[in-house]
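Incident log, structure service

09:12 report received: a user says their structure output differs between two submissions of the same chain.
09:20 pulled the input from the user's history:
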Amino acid sequence: MTFVDSNGEAFQAVLTPRNVTEVKNLVKQVLEDETLDSAVALQIKKLHKIAMKAIADTIIQSSTNKELLMQLKKHKKRETQTDE
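09:34 re-ran on a clean worker, output below:
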């Protein structure tokens, strides 16, 4: 996510689970721009909400995948033990 303010200063944040704080700070900085149209500010707030949900979904899916892989390894280990 990248934003260039009226002074030409660019702010950038990558949407990953590790960057939640960075994304929040970027949105906060963007919304502090006094020349920002209220309709644009509303869209940025909506984008922020979508980004946070996407990050949360990524975290949940990552945790689920780790759990599934762990269970698969346990299952394969049990199968190997019963075959012996």
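09:41 both user submissions now match this output. Likely a transient worker issue. Closing.
09:42 reviewer note: The first helix runs from residue 20 to 31. The longest strand covers residues 2-4.
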